[in-house]
Amino acid sequence: MKYVNTARTVPGGPDKVGVLITNLGTPDAPEKAPLRRYLKEFLSDPRVVEVPRLIWWLILNLVILNIRPSRSAAAYKTVWTDRGSPLMFHTQDQARGLQEALAERYGDDIVVDFAMRYGSPSISEVLDRMLAAGVTRLLVMPLYPQYSCATTGSTFDAIAADFTRRRNLPSLKFISRYYDHADYIGALALSIRTFQQEHGTPDRLIFSYHGTPQRYCDEGDPYYCECIHTTQLVAELLDLPEGSYMTTFQSRFGREAWLQPYTDEILKSLPGEGVTSVQLICPGFSADCLETLEEIGEENREYFMQSGGKEYTYIPCLNSDPQHISVLAQLAEEELSGWLESRLN
Ligand SMILES: C=CC1=C(C)c2cc3[nH]c(cc4nc(cc5[nH]c(cc1n2)c(C)c5CCC(=O)O)C(CCC(=O)O)=C4C)c(C)c3C=C
Ligand SMILES: [Fe+2]
Ligand SMILES: [Fe+2]
């Protein structure tokens, strides 16, 4: 049999709406072997590293996978919790919150689940489960507010690849971006305002986004423009004075130029310009993870303080805050309106 038959739908049978939230994925444990497995899958994706395959295979297998797993494992250990990786437990909480919010309005004809692009739970195993539960219409929501070929694009590849092996396909909707959605911008603005009520206003508010190679942007990836736009919309909503905020890019990997300015270089140079108190926010991450908690929360704090900085605070991601859950519920409802109309309680 060439095609798997995970969903044998029949007229009058189960006919549910499924909402699948996805994120990047994370290692199973902060140890060398799970890190090696995770990095191998992630960094072998041609959407993530756009380098000729044979050259990249040699670099990845002979160099990176021999050095990076133990270094990354040590970094993951600093953020690991009783519930495992922060990215994992925040995503679980987001799925639960979204399920409850949607069930309140639409009952149990709607099924919410989550999957990871790399590692587990994989997109295919979760789709097996959802389709077996009677999902005939599927909304995929990658939790990347700004579209990038390396993240959102790759998630679409995984859905499409999964569908090539199935006989009976559900109807499909896919959210490519929500960087300018009023509710998302409002939730970010509220989190900044609430944080500043307790911690005061810094000399500079820094919006730090995960970087990508500059080349991807030059070749048409809209990610950079969408990040700049998100910052601008939040700044307008909060009425931030020009010069009191900026956009930077973090998590550089490899030797080629990435999107600039680089977060770490900016933090090293600001104290020399008289900027000694900063607040950092990472609006491109829908959940706290290694890149926010360790890289922004710890590593970059050191750079700033060692360069003469005095006050450095990090504003957490929206995670599973009620405000964020209602952003996700609103996004889902806007996409599903046609599918859900007949199911309103
Ligand atoms: C090698 C190239 C990479 C590109 C391009 C890239 C783009 C990209 N990544 C995110 C979100 C996350 N990345 C995370 C970790 C992470 N990212 C890379 C590399 C690239 N990312 C690596 C090697 C790692 C692993 C950690 C390490 O070894 O340093 C994470 C955190 C995962 C976790 O478990 O906590 C997220 C989230 C975005 C949004 C993006 C492009 C826009
Ligand atoms: Fe990354
Ligand atoms: Fe990092």
How would you characterize this protein structure?
A 4-stranded parallel sheet has the order 2-1-3-4, with helices on both faces. The chain has a 4-stranded parallel sheet with strand order 6-5-7-8, sandwiched between helices. α10 (290-306) links the parallel β7 (277-281) and β8. α6 packs across α8 (223-238). By secondary structure, it is α/β, with parallel strands linked by helices. Helix content is 48%, strand content 14%. The protein folds into 2 domains: 16-178 and 323-343, 3-Layer(aba) Sandwich (Rossmann fold), CATH 3.40.50.1400; 182-315, Rossmann fold (3-Layer(aba) Sandwich), CATH 3.40.50. The relative contact order is 0.15. It has helices spanning 32-43, 53-77, 86-106, 123-132, 149-163, 182-199, 214-218, 223-238, 263-269, 290-306, 322-340; strands spanning 16-23, 110-116, 135-142, 171-174, 204-210, 245-250, 277-281, 311-315. The longest helix is centred in the first third of the chain and has 25 residues, at 53-77. It is globular and about 70 Å long. It has 11 helices and 8 strands. One of its GO terms (biological process) is heme biosynthetic process. Pathway: Porphyrin-containing compound metabolism; protoheme biosynthesis; protoheme from protoporphyrin-IX: step 1/1. Pfam families: Ferrochelatase.
